Automatic annotation (TrEMBL):
Name by which UniProt lists this protein: RING-type E3 ubiquitin transferase
Catalytic activities: S-ubiquitinyl-[E2 ubiquitin-conjugating enzyme]-L-cysteine + [acceptor protein]-L-lysine = [E2 ubiquitin-conjugating enzyme]-L-cysteine + N(6)-ubiquitinyl-[acceptor protein]-L-lysine
Pfam family membership, one: U-box
Transmembrane segment boundaries: none
Gene3D superfamilies reported in the protein's UniProt record: Leucine-rich Repeat Variant (1.25.10.10), Zinc/RING finger domain, C3HC4 (zinc finger) (3.30.40.10)
Native source organism of the sequence: Carnegiea gigantea
GO MF annotation: an example: ubiquitin protein ligase activity
Pathway: Protein modification; protein ubiquitination
Domain U-box positions: 240-318
InterPro entries reported for this sequence: ARM-like (IPR011989), ARM-type_fold (IPR016024), Armadillo (IPR000225), RING-Ubox_PUB (IPR045210), U-box_domain_protein (IPR052608), Ubox_domain (IPR003613), Znf_RING/FYVE/PHD (IPR013083)
Any one biological process term the GO annotation gives: protein ubiquitination
Keywords: Repeat, Transferase
Length: 1033
């Protein structure tokens, strides 16, 4: 076509002018292609391509875009169209004389032009279509199709294929056959033809293409409306069904046509039912001709059945292409739903068509529909994809699309049919191992399935379906691991218990790698312990390693200790620990076995009855010397720190048990293990040092003096055990346990006290006590233990006050005032007990430190006194105040006097404490003021003035403790002896005290009974106490 046709008028835009001329040319091409007499298949398909291009041109024209790239694209399309038009004009002019070779050459030329038009459409940018998303999608899809378009050329043959031979012959035999328009609503897709396409068998497409090209003047319609309109008019594009296809009885197309005696063909089932309706066979007539039948024989009409089958196949192929076109272009929800419904019907009627559906690309279009907002469309698309997923090839194709992740997200839909359809699809997809693995990689997918499974009360079907999906996904080990991370343990445990040896090893390895919640640890222990222990017996080195790691985690939750013991694990662990030592093999399993055993022992699973717990096949128990000495041997032989930690934990558990402590103490005493344990106090590992301190603290009550000897011979000790925190409130466990250990070593050991004194640790202790007391809200979990340890170290010095250096230390640092302040200010029971015990020790020294009044200095001064006449201005005589209890000059600092320190009221207040040890320690401190070496009578009067009698009586009433009663009775006896009638009256009026005394007299120890008897005698001497005497008798 000459280029002059593209010259612009003054009143038109470039887009409008080019598009108008181009649409006219495309209309002519469509008409020419449809009228071709030869190679109708190919020319009809060529015409349909140009028809679709005209729709694209209309959309570009409607957009009103005048961008340069769009104009260039239309100009290029015009050139291609001119070339195609010239070829088709030549075809029309030579229609009668054109040879097959010339026709084939024309088709090949048109194929090249169509490919290049596809390239031209591809360069049009999305911005050309403004907000028309459908237009952009359709034109890009058309571009890709045209780029790949190929036309199959059939060689001329005298004999037609078998599937076409019967059709003309059958029509010749039935000259009156009439065509009936098909009821399908979908046009033939312009998708590239498949090998067995029968599109050319539709003569009516010519009329459709011609009429469609005549409608190109509708420039302003939207693409969505165009797609819907074309679909509704597509009935004429289908190959018609001929009258002979229909059964006269059912008026439906026949599936199994049979011919009866009259020569009329019927559906077998229908005519059989018709014959059966006659009671007398002789009365049977043909339902169409009404002639009487001699017999009811039926002959299969094989030719017609074959023709109908071929007709259905061709029509279904055409319908599939029409469906592809609808799903590609889009449209209203109703149109898309109708397309999917017909697609389902085709696939259900002809399962073999599923292959064709996959081949023409409908699967990808269905997956795209899953992103639409319309719930009905999404649900229908899911159901159709489910049908396509029945075959392995379909699963593979679906796996290459976003269908899996999109379907997973639909599990959270509030629309139940979508959830159910999604689950059915996932069940089918999860049957493939590769797709099941992909499903596991969808973020949050497994979690949604697990949640759906356990919401059975709200949706039973969804729960069961989700359970089936999860079971299918178990075929991928990595999915099992992900399930466990979300708390779903059943797959792992089932595979561990019932799987192959390889799978068991895999599951045991996973179990050793994942982190379990405590509740899950118990569940795993209950179900998996037997099989894990069996694997320890029979497995190889790799299996045993994985099992030990898994059991180490399971045993870390203490309630599982008894489960593992009942499963028979202890002997395996002990033998593993000692066997590896003998053969000098890898220490990994030894560390893990010792860790598991330590966890089990710390759980207290046996109520600390370790003496009866079998540890070896030879009959040794956990508390036997064999086991203990082997553990000590392992510690002595420089084993790794992490193993040492576990061994120390085991010994700690053994020594906590009264019946198993003796072997541990004996082993430590008889070996140099005490040196090693003391050296571990300085270990840089916090865990190792902490474990060693705990063990040594327990041993201190058995071999405390030995430990002090080792401690004082170790470089840097004991002073390094006293460390100040980096900041207030930042006390570590190691710091707290270290000072607590020093505090619990025997107080009477002067060697340790002298070592602490020589290292100048006391100022640090005093400062740290003050800081701990002042930390307030900044305290952490170890503050109380740290303060108790510091006070304990301070108090231990009071046990060796017989040494002059210790005495000077207590005086110099004013221990009396410090401990008195602790009694008043502390909230810790242990600090209160320790402070009272320290005051007791200090107060017991007061009688020895009290100084008599210095009278010599006074007599010497009298020599220099002025005469009486001159003494009017002299100062009054100096008065020296004496301690009423200690009968001398006392002070709170120099003589540790509790009276001067005003400690008595604070101690008496402690008698009301709930802790019996605090009360007992307080009574001991008060009793130092009633010793025979002091003025007992004045002391009693002073204490009574502070209501001491009532406080002591109250303590006896509230605490039923033998040791406390002994101390309280001793104090009460002093009050009765020296307190006069007032004390006797107070004691005698307290009836509850009398009951306590009688109880002690009858059930107490010998010394307690003796003290109780003395008090009862004092009470019986009182004449006003006859009633009480009668009561006590």
């Amino acid at each position: 076509m000459p280029c002059s046709c593209f010259q612009l008028n003054a009143d038109t835009t470039p887009i409008t002018s080019i598009a108008k001329s181009l649409l006219a040319s495309l209309s002519e091409i469509t008409t020419s292609a449809g009228s071709a007499k030869i190679e109708q298949n190919n020319f009809l398909e060529i015409g349909s391509y140009f028809y679709r291009v005209s729709q694209a041109i209309e959309e570009i024209q409607t957009s009103g875009n005048t961008k340069e790239h769009a104009v260039r694209a239309l100009e290029s399309l015009s050139e291609r169209t001119d070339s195609a038009k010239a070829i088709l004009v030549k075809l029309q002019q030579s229609a009668e004389n054109i040879s097959d070779n010339e026709a084939h050459s024309m088709i090949k030329q048109l194929e090249v032009i169509i490919n290049r038009i596809g390239d031209d459409l591809g360069v049009i940018t999305p911005s050309t279509f403004r907000d028309e998303i459908y237009a952009e999608t359709v034109i890009q899809s058309l571009s890709e199709e045209m780029k790949r378009a190929q036309f199959e050329i059939h060689e001329t043959s005298e004999t037609k294929p078998d599937n076409q031979q019967t059709w003309p012959s059958y029509l010749e035999e039935h000259p009156n056959t009439q065509s009936i328009a098909g009821s399908d609503l979908y046009s033939i897709s312009t998708e590239v033809r498949t090998k067995n396409s029968h599109v050319s068998d539709i003569p009516q497409i010519l009329e459709a293409l011609t009429s469609a090209s005549q409608r190109n003047h509708r420039r302003h319609r939207k693409m969505s409306n165009a797609s819907e309109g074309s679909v509704m008019e597509a009935a004429q594009f289908m190959e018609p069904a001929y009258k002979s296809f229909f059964c006269p009885l059912t008026t439906q197309i026949m599936d199994d046509p049979v011919t009866i005696q009259s020569g009329v063909t019927y559906e077998r089932k229908a005519i059989t039912e018709y014959f059966e309706s006659f009671g007398n066979p002789e009365e049977v007539v043909c339902p169409t001709t009404k002639e009487k039948l001699q017999n009811m024989a039926m002959s299969p009409n094989i030719a017609l059945r074959h023709i109908i089958k071929e007709w259905k196949d061709r029509n279904e192929t055409a319908q599939l292409k029409g469906i592809h076109a609808v799903l590609s272009v889009g449209g209203t929800e109703a149109v898309i739903l109708e397309a999917i419904k017909n697609l389902q019907n085709i696939c259900l009627r002809s399962p073999k068509k599923i292959i064709e559906v996959r081949d023409i690309g409908i699967t990808t279009l269905l997956v795209r529909l899953l992103e639409l907002k319309d719930r009905a469309v999404r649900c229908a698309a899911l159901e159709m994809i489910y049908l396509l997923a029945k075959e392995d090839e379909g699963k593979e194709l679906i796996g290459g699309t976003p269908a899996i992740s999109t379907t997973m997200r639909m599990l959270s839909s509030s629309y139940q049919p979508i959830r159910h359809a999604a689950l059915l699809l996932l069940i089918e997809l999860s049957k493939s191992q590769s797709l099941a693995e992909k499903m596991g990689l969808v973020t949050g997918g497994i979690l949604m399935l697990i949640q759906t499974k356990y919401h059975r009360c709200t949706d039973t079907f969804a729960s069961e379906a989700a359970d089936q999906v999860l079971r299918n996904m178990e075929q991928c080990p990595n999915n099992i691991k992900l399930m466990v991370e979300y708390g779903y343990l059943e797959p792992l445990l089932n595979n561990l218990i019932q799987g192959s040896e390889e799978r068991k090893l895999e599951m045991a390895t996973y179990l050793s790698e994942i982190i379990l919640e405590d509740d899950n640890k118990t569940y795993v222990a209950e179900r998996a312990s037997p099989v894990l222990i069996h694997m320890l017996h029979s497995g190889d080195l790799l299996s045993r390693k994985a099992v030990f790691k898994a059991l180490l985690q399971i045993s870390s939750y203490h309630p599982n200790g008894k489960i593992l013991v009942d499963a028979g694990i202890v002997q395996i662990l002990v033998e593993e620990m000692f066997k590896k030592q003998i053969h000098n093999e890898s220490m990994d399993s030894v560390r893990e076995a010792s860790g598991i055993l330590a966890n089990i022992l710390e759980s207290g699973a046996f109520g600390l009855a370790l003496k009866n717990l079998p540890a070896t096949k030879q009959g040794h128990t956990m508390a036997s010397g064999y086991v203990v000495f082997n553990i000590i041997y392992m510690i002595r032989n420089s084993t790794p720190d992490d193993l040492n930690l576990n061994l120390i934990r085991i010994l700690t558990c053994l020594i906590k048990s009264t019946k198993s402590a003796a072997p541990v103490v004996s082993a430590v005493k008889e070996s140099d293990a005490s040196y090693i344990l003391v050296e571990l106090l300085s270990n840089p590992s916090h865990e190792i040092a902490t474990a060693a301190i705990k063990l040594l603290t327990l041993l201190s009550s058995h071999i405390g003096h030995l430990l002090i000897e080792r401690l004082c011979k170790t470089h840097g000790l004991p002073e390094d055990l006293i460390q100040s925190p980096a900041a207030p409130g930042q006390i570590t466990e190691r710091q707290a346990l270290s000072v607590s250990f020093l505090a619990k070593l025997p107080h009477q050991n002067l060697t340790l006290n002298m070592a602490l004194l020589s290292k100048n640790t006391v100022p640090k202790i005093v400062e740290s006590i003050n800081q701990a007391q002042q930390s307030g809200a900044r305290q952490n979990r170890y503050t109380s233990l740290y303060l108790e340890g510091l006070v304990g170290i301070l108090v231990r010095f009071t046990a060796t006050l017989y040494d002059s250096q210790m005495l000077f230390l207590a005086i110099n640092h004013n221990f009396t005032t410090m401990l008195t302040d602790l009694v008043a200010e502390t909230s810790s029971d242990e600090v209160l007990r320790l402070a009272a015990a320290g005051l007791e020790k200090l107060s017991s020294q007061s009688i020895h430190l009290t100084q008599p009044p210095k009278l010599k200095r006074e007599r010497f001064l009298n020599l220099f006194c002025l005469p009486q006449s001159l003494a009017s201005c002299s100062s009054s005589k100096i008065q020296i105040q004496l301690c009423p209890v200690h009968k001398g000059v006392c002070s709170k600092q120099d003589t540790f006097c509790l009276i001067e320190a005003k400690a008595v009221p604070r101690l008496l207040a402690c008698l009301d404490h709930r802790n019996v040890e605090v009360v007992e320690s307080t009574l001991s401190a008060i009793s130092t003021l009633l010793d025979d070496k002091v003025d007992v009578e004045r002391s009693v009067n002073l204490l009574n003035a502070m209501n001491a009698t009532q406080q002591v009586l109250k303590a006896v009433r509230h605490h039923k403790n033998e040791s406390l009663w002994q101390k309280a009775f001793w104090i009460i006896e002093r009050f009765l002896l020296k307190g006069g009638q007032s004390s006797i009256s107070l004691v005698s009026q307290d009836r509850m005290f009398a009951i306590s005394v009688v109880t002690a007299f009858h059930h107490g120890e010998a010394y307690t009974r003796q003290m109780a008897e003395k008090i009862l005698r004092y009470l019986d001497k009182m004449p006003t106490l006859s009633a009480t005497a009668t009561f006590t008798a």
